[in-house]
Amino acid sequence: MISVADALARVCEATPVLGPERVPIAAALGRVAAEDVVATRAVPAAANSAMDGFAVRHADLSTVPATLRIVAVEPAGTVVATAVAPGMAVKLFTGSVIPPGADTVVRVEDTAERDGTVAVRVAPPAGANVRNAGEDIRPGQVVIVRGTVVGPADIGVLASAGRATTVVHQRPRVAIVSTGSELVEIEEEPGPGQVVNSNAYTLAAAVAEAGGEPVVLPIVPDRAEDVRAHVARALAADVVLTSGGVSVGDLDLVKDALAALGVVQVFWQVAQKPGRPLAFGVAGERLVFGLPGNPVSALVCFYLYVRPALRRLQGHARLHLPALEARLATAVRKARGLTEFVRVRLADGPDGPVATALPSQSSGVLTALGSGAALLVGPPDMTELAAGNRYPVIVVAPDAVARAAPPF
Ligand code: AMP
Ligand code: MG
User: Which pTM does this prediction carry?
Assistant: First the structure.
């Protein structure tokens, strides 16, 4: 049995980074840039006004008020050829190009316009309210650095640089193989001893949330040849997730099937609760996770080990879920020797977050991991987590840390 930290390190070491693909910029959201993007044009293309007002020569404002003659009007999107000669002004608007001869924009609030002239009451500093050409982007500038997680502003930058497509890391295809002769499809009414294959739904959702493309294969009964045949098909994907059949019972056929298919076992059994039977292996560049069948164990193992691997495949540098420190509301007993991931709910306390353990910590009670639950990390050496102490809490649902009130 290996430790949680060692197991995770082995997974990360074994995980490659997928190659690049070109996608429309709107499809790049949340994905990782696979190459630097170098601008070939300036943004803005020409110096323009940051205000509605008048383009002037600053030298004309040595004494104010100064009265200038309006020689042209230039709405945004139009460009006047008229130069601003001494004693003259061009009326313009936010975004209008600064006409030749002008060096400063006086905002409309500091002027009075009458009969084709403008009286400037307040002289701004030279160059005021002028946005220079290339102020946002210069030609030759790297606007997206390889490794950037593309966000809305990056997509806008790509658009203003004239790039309709961009190159990002591919998304992994993730095959999901649910084993268990007791499993039935969602349309069926489970009889005694039968359960709906909920893991396929849980895992497909978790894969999609982590940026992967889930491929759900049919239920596999606990028969060695069936398990082998389905896992063999699944190995066409970048990542295989099996669920069930990986502990020490007679019907735990997954490990044998993986071995028969040439999957090299990296580890089996981790000193943790839930999820102790977790198996991990590699077949060339492909990753195989043998997840336990218990629904909570399968999802906790996904969050802790599979999700970081899916992120690394997609080129992310930060692989792990966010965590915070929270005070434990009431004491929790735990097994010595195992890292325990206690299902908790977070609330705001007087000195920071407070974590309350959910009443059921059974690995079969998936409801305890729903609706914004989080995972408090109980260290392996402890048998009791004391009330009032602070522990790290892994935030699995971003909504658990969303604010009810804004910070201003
Ligand atoms: P196993 O790891 O195969 O021994 O399964 C452990 C427990 O998880 C058993 O109670 C199974 O019925 C349950 N289980 C296994 N696979 C699934 C699944 N795909 N969906 C829901 N529950 C499952
Ligand atoms: Mg089973």
Answer: 0.95
Residue 371 pLDDT greater than 90, yes or no: no
Q: Rounded CA gap, 339 and 291, in Å?
A: 17
pLDDT tens profile 132-172: 999 999 999 999 999 999 999 999 999 999 999 999 999 99
Q: Is the CB of 212 under 6 A from ligand 1?
A: no
- CA gap 395, 301 in Å, rounded: 14
Neighbouring CB atoms inside 10 A of 108's CB total 16
Q: For residue 403, which amino acid is it?
A: R
Does ligand 1 have an atom closer than 6 angstroms to the CB of 183? yes
Of ligand 1's listed atoms, the one at least distance from the Cα of 200 is 19
Q: Measured between alpha carbons, how far is 157 from 27 in angstroms, rounded to an integer?
A: 15
User: CA-to-CA distance for 76 and 376, rounded, in angstroms?
Assistant: 56
Residue 195 in contact with ligand 1 by CB distance below 6 A: yes
Give the C-alpha distances (Å, rounded to integers) separating 254 from 232, 284, 402. Answer: 12, 18, 39
What's the 184 CA to ligand 1 centre distance in angstroms?
A: 11
Residue 276: what residue type? R
Measured in angstroms, how far is the CA atom of residue 295 from the centroid of ligand 1? Answer: 7
For residue 294 and ligand 1, the question of a CB distance below 6 A is answered with: yes
Instruction: Read off the pLDDT band of 77 (50, 70, 90).
Output: confident
Quick one: 16 exposed, middle or buried, by C-beta within 10 A (0-12, 13-18, 19+)? middle
**Are 141 and 43 spatial neighbours (Cβ–Cβ below 8 Å)?**
no
Q: Would you call the peptide bond into 274 cis, given omega within 30 degrees of 0 as the criterion?
A: yes
Give the total residue count for the chain. 408
CB 170 within 8 A of CB 20: yes
